[in-house]
Give the backbone structure.
Amino acid sequence: MNQESRVLKFLYNTFLGRLVLKLITFPIFSKLIGFFLCTKFSKIFIKRFVLKNNIHLEDYEEVNYKSFNDFFSRQIKVEKRKIAKSKNSFISPCDGLLSIYEIKKGLVVPIKQSFYSVSSLLQDEDLAQEFQEGYALVFRLCVNHYHRYCYIDDGYHSSPTFIKGRLHTVRPIALENVAVFSENSREYTLLETDHFGNIIQIEIGALCVGKIKNYYKEYSFKKGEEKGMFLFGGSTIVLLVKKEQVRFLPKYIKDEEIFVKMGEKIGEKL
């Protein structure tokens, strides 16, 4: 067991660890970490992070990073993330490990050993009801993944809705004891898309992230256009899709997480 795993076991599986966890999950702790990671002093962590997570810097635009968060939200080269442009292609909004679930009776979003209803994600029972019999797509971003995300179609949206929460890690060990999506801060946007009906995109922060950076309020967007980014930490994106809108490609309908890239075709218009 590596040091990181031992720390997580201590935090989530011991009485003293849970007391420590109560302290470090207060928003002020996350803000302090976030502030430090935006300073020039945090650059000392970049080299070790790259080596530890086997990150291929040649895939990214060459810049002089001003801080660790500047590096973490680095911009990938355009040719490394090609967008499936066909209007009938349903694409991934981000890099991540994808799981697809059919929405049935509210308890529809399992992440490892935990389950979350659409209504608890949105804190809006009426809006959640509109997506019954549809699909929840869960994209789990690891620290080595690209942490910017895009719009999956052309369309329009009004201002996102922010739900304040207590921040917890999204690593699997944490999911044994913590209802991640009911605890984490999150932001969702109702996307009125041109080809796939109304879709909800939810960005979910994790421990020491607390920073979901969406660029626009009311906005007319284009497919593949950058929607926002996460700052440091593991994070998750959930898409809610209504029934009879999309046919997902068979290779993504599996009882395991499948790695996908931003812009990759994962389904098609019905």
In short: The mean pLDDT is 86. The CA atoms of residues 33 and 115 lie 29 Å apart. The longest helix spans residues 3-13.
